[in-house]
Amino acid sequence: MSIFDLSVAGAAKALKAKEISAVELTTAYNAAVAELNPRLNAFITTTPELALGQAKAADARIADGSATPLTGVPIAMKDLFCTEGVRTTAASKILEPFIPPYESTVSGKLKEAGAVMLGKANLDEFAMGSSNITSGYGSVENPWKRQGSDAKLVPGGSSGGSAAAVAARIALAATGTDTGGSIRQPAAFTGLAGIKPTYGRCSRWGVVAFASSLDQPGPMARNVEDNALLLNAMAGFDEKDSTSAEREVPDFTAALSRGVKGLKIGIPAEYRLEGTNPEILALWDKGIEWLKAQGAEIIDISLPHTKYGLPVYYIVAPAEASSNLARYDGVRYGKRVDGEDLIDLYERTRAEGFGAEVKRRIMIGTYVLSHGYYDAYYLKAQKVRNLILKDFTDAFAKVDAILTPTAPSAAFGLGEKMDDPVTMYLNDVFTVPASLAGVPAMSVPAGLSADGLPLGLQVIGKHFDEETVFAVSAAIETAANFTALPEVRAK
Amino acid sequence: MSYTLEGRTGNWEVVVGLEVHAQVISESKLFSGASATYGGAPNAHVSFIDAGFPGMLPVINKECVAQAVRTGLGLRAQINLFSRFDRKNYFYADLPQGYQISQFAHPIVGTGDVEIELQDGTIKHVGITRLHLEQDAGKSMHDQHPAKSVIDLNRAGVALMEIVSEPDIRSPEEAGAYLRKLRQILRYLGTCDGNMEEGSMRADVNVSVRKAGEEFRTRCEIKNVNSIRFVMHAVEAEAMRQIEVWESGGEVVQETRLYDPSKGETRSMRSKEDAHDYRYFPEPDLLPLILEQEWVEGLKSSLPELPDEKRARFCTEYGIPFYDAGVLVAEQATADFYETLAKGRDGKLAANWVTGDFFAAMNRTGKSIENPPVSVDALGQMLDLITDKTINGRIAKDVFEEMVETGKMPAAIVEEKGLKQVTDTGAIDEAVTKVLTDNQDKVAEYKSGKDKLFGFFVGQVMKAMQGKGNPALVNEAVKKQLG
Q: Which of B212, B201, B213 is nearest to B163 (CA)?
């Protein structure tokens, strides 16, 4: 077995048993990054020396018995988390020279747990995108290939660099952030498991903001158990984030073996969209059978406002983004393009610093908040958002979890779906409702498409009931027995 | 008699509403732990939150909320147990986040009331529309470098209370009285130092004019006026300008204006068309602010006595006139000084001394109530010397001046200079006899009906006794000897 076949749990075991040292593990991963990153572009910034230093410290902790399950585990950090002393770009040119003097709460917790940071993973600029093609630092290549084709595919987005790095095994696990599907959709596109926790479960402090009421950090890894291990370290109340939840964090790994016997699983009729790839629907049916076979009760439910999810999301998220991104003005940090006067400086800096998708969303967001349009767009959207939340609350009065597909298709080719942003936005159709409702949702790799690409199923749970999400996801994982590997990977 | 301005077409009434920005007294800023103290080297009190760094999040400062609630209570206003922050979006170099966190739709304090007193003693009520919490911006300076502007973010993020009045004010005098009263209440509460020169209290002045009985006409807003005097001048100047516009057949357009104190006039800053679209929306980084009634009650019960109540109490408790009580409560420190002095003494006597010789000495020496020309203890001992008849009122004035001059205690001065009042009737009789003997012609005039000379004899006796005679006894002795 190769060192790259290890899971986080497996690596922790091997490290603890001193079968391998953290320095050996990190050295191997550093080398894999150096070999494959030029092709995949999964990292914007690599930090091999820093990683090695952290690995040495990890070995010391393992030796003195103060190690956690993440001590010495090499991970990729989405370049949306501010990391002290390490450049943080949000994949935007406007932050190209920005080196934060502080560490985000979540990356800090992982650091404290002893995780080793290999580098800062690529993403869509400011996390705005579903394909990682909007990055200011080049697109990311999906390590998976369609059978018999060498066409480059997208890894999904916005956490595309994180997904590609873990799938290609140049990182053992990664952090992501999810605003409308940015963890779940790339996880599905690359054969990984990834969870968007309940809004408020992980602190947003130090995470470059896209849409504050939706953004939520979460892990991405090769299996469900690894996600539980990472989330154990990432979650928790943070007094620096007023929207983080002041509640206990359970041991998520304990939920993995609960099983689904007696659980009620809801199947929402509205997710059976016309025109959805029949392969996806077939996989969904398979998932239903798996859970039924393990003793779950399948219940047909309705989430009647599902069809408004995307329109609501594409009003609320850009509205918040238009305000959140106002601080990138060239005055205090980041890129500055000098101008004749202040307004000129703003215009030049932001024209050069932001990419097309970011500009588009700032324009949409500014428009929907404008005087005379606010009621018709933003206020209406907030009202519908409440109805979507109510859909879930009503459903969860009847069921313990909900099963849906993660994305309407498998990974698509670089250059496909690029001409029309609205087509691109449709990628988020199954993931956005859970984001708007703030409920936890996980994508689990469940099978392959006819042309050999991974497909994911999504498990949605009640607020702060990640445990049931983990239990159901683990059951699907077991039944699916997904062992396929991408073509491009460290060996 | 209500205030009007005379135009060519008749008299005009002035309608004024004030929006006062009062900087909250607190250790740290509204949403960050950075120091909120005035001064300091530029950019010395700035956190990453204040500077709008990526990923930074606001966390509400409970003390600022308490200060806003205290102020609301002091303004006899509705305290809203539910309030919410919104973002007010606009670009400016000293606004690091690109938005100001403010309360737009749901302010923490609702309608209230302020009582003002005018020169002629009239009491008037000015309604409070609302009070909300918001962050201050930083400061841009354009005169420090030939080609660049420099920015100081020390003030960025400091908590402000915006206190909005109803358009109930009808004259410059009322505007001034309202601002003075508001400042007095804030200072009593300890929620704002009210220092307009340092900018910790600033006013936006909304002015319109109308003919008697009309609906409100279009108003203009004069931004950021930084003294009470300027507010009063600005109201008049702007009202005159608007009257001129209306009377020459024009129409006043709603706009934001600036007051230029050197020219005594207002000028246009931006028109309604150029007004910012602030794109207010609920601040997603903060939860709604929910207060518990119990907590509000706790603040209420620990509120200091406010000027209106204190004034009424001084009148009843110390038996002093309403006017004097008003003078004494103007500043909390003065009221405290007076009350310490008056406790267990003659309240009227204490009031006369504080508002009379003591204030005069304070003005003359340039000292303050915090650092008084005569300590409250010393002044109290002096009053005691008057009351127990050790000295008389006339001598007391000399003793007081000596106290101001030397800082010595009154008893020591009296002792040293032998200023003790003479109550020995033998000595007094002797002095009276001598004066009458020396002025026999005057005695004759007195006896033939010139009663006014009585005072002359008393004066002469007092003079002969170096002012130390007990006035009542001297009076009595003169009367007796004159038969």
A: B201
